[in-house]
Amino acid sequence: MRDRALKDYDHVILWLDYFNKNLKRRQGRKVKRDHAVFDPTVQELVEAAKTAGYQVEDDAVNDAARFPRRSFVKSGYVMLAKKEGVKKSKVIASVAEKLLQKHARQKSGKK
């Protein structure tokens, strides 16, 4: 019998595709289009997660992984420890808000 990886119930996986404004919902985007950003990077996602109050360890970041719905494109993800009583949708919403704020600051700084 093969040793299979068991599902990790102690962590939440946040894929870059959840926050990518270029994608449709059926392609993997999980936030509203006006809460998404154009082509986020793994580093931006890590910074947004930290700003939202989550600890991100170096071994919990994978920038070479491929999102299952778009396996032909390298995407990446961040793995966050679950907080008691907080649903994944709330985690996604809080990280999306911080990611959007970061992009808005960068955009206004460039003007």
UniProtKB/TrEMBL annotation:
Gene3D superfamilies the UniProt entry points to: Signal recognition particle, SRP19-like subunit
One protein family per Pfam: SRP19
Keyword list, A-Z: Cytoplasm, Ribonucleoprotein, Signal recognition particle
GO molecular function ontology, one term from the record: 7S RNA binding
GO BP term, pick one: SRP-dependent cotranslational protein targeting to membrane
InterPro entries linked: Signal_recog_particle_SRP19 (IPR002778), SRP19-like_sf (IPR036521)
GO CC term (a single one): signal recognition particle
Name listed for the protein in its UniProt record: Signal recognition particle 19 kDa protein
Species the sequence originates in: Candidatus Nitrososphaera evergladensis SR1
